Amino acid sequence: MSSRTFVLRKEDAQHEWFIVDAQGQRLGTLAVRIAQVLSGRHKPTYTPHTDDGDHVVVINAEKVELSGAKWQQKVYRRHSGFPGGLHEETANEVRESHPERLIERAVRGMLAPNKLRSVRMNRLKVYAGAAHPHSGQEPRPLA
User: Domains in the chain, please, with CATH?
Assistant: First the structure.
């Protein structure tokens, strides 16, 4: 009797919906859990080359926490590609203007940089407040 390795096919993947309340949670810990769900690593049917992840709705993104003095010391940098095109923002400035980008950027950095990353990021929905338009999908709370 020989055993076979299970390989999930693309057409057999089922995507569920989860909701996460970011209020009072640390950014890094929250991003790790969300990245696992988006990539499907929380399922026993996980296959690295197959997109088996679930949808995640994050609410209250403006109330996420950072430890210590990271609100002033953590700097997000991007460059336009032109001379003198470096743009820097502290975590506090990002939270004031676009609080959902803190979570999106942290989760994106924790996903594998392959062809599936953009597909998985499309399943992440982040909202600054408590309201979201995905109640029709009946998202379950993420444990």
Answer: 14-65+99-141 (3.90.1180.10)
